[in-house]
Specification:
By secondary structure, the chain is of the alpha+beta class. It has 1 helix and 9 strands, in the order αβββββββββ. It is elongated. The mean pLDDT is 83.
Length: 132
């Protein structure tokens, strides 16, 4: 009677492996769903920049190519809160719309600046500029 025992053990092993595979699949899906993703409804692009005289500020042109209005909540330069003046538009950038922001920066030649924009949805857009 060794045959039924082998079949029973093989069936038990197959069931166990199936349960493990399902558990790994569920854990992988949960992990992937927890990763940050870009929200296509709220997508802002930095399309141009211009340094002001004596590198006192940077004018940055933003364009919203998402499907919903993007609301800027914060602007940081090199991880520090920045002073911002809206030259064109406002912190609410409609779909297909744009805004020009004047971002104050310290006047240091040949310095790299990372300007980070964060929306009300938590999306973060970073732009790197070398002030020459």
């Amino acid at each position: 009677m060794p045959q039924p025992s082998i079949k029973k053990n093989a069936l038990s092993l197959a069931q166990t492996l199936l349960c493990i595979a399902i558990a790994i699949s569920l854990a992988t899906m949960a992990w992937i769903n927890g990763l940050p993703t870009t929200n296509q409804n709220n997508k802002v692009q930095i399309v141009a920049h211009r340094l002001g005289p004596n590198r006192a500020y940077i004018d940055v042109r933003l364009y919203n190519n998402g499907t919903q209005t993007a609301v800027l909540r914060s602007v940081k330069v090199n991880s520090k809160p920045a002073t911002v003046i809206y030259i064109l538009g406002s912190s609410q950038i409609r779909s297909g719309g744009s805004a020009i922001l004047r971002v104050a920066i310290p006047s240091v030649p040949d310095r790299t600046y990372q300007i980070a924009f964060q929306t009300d949805k938590g999306n973060k857009f970073v732009y790197t500029i070398i002030a020459k």
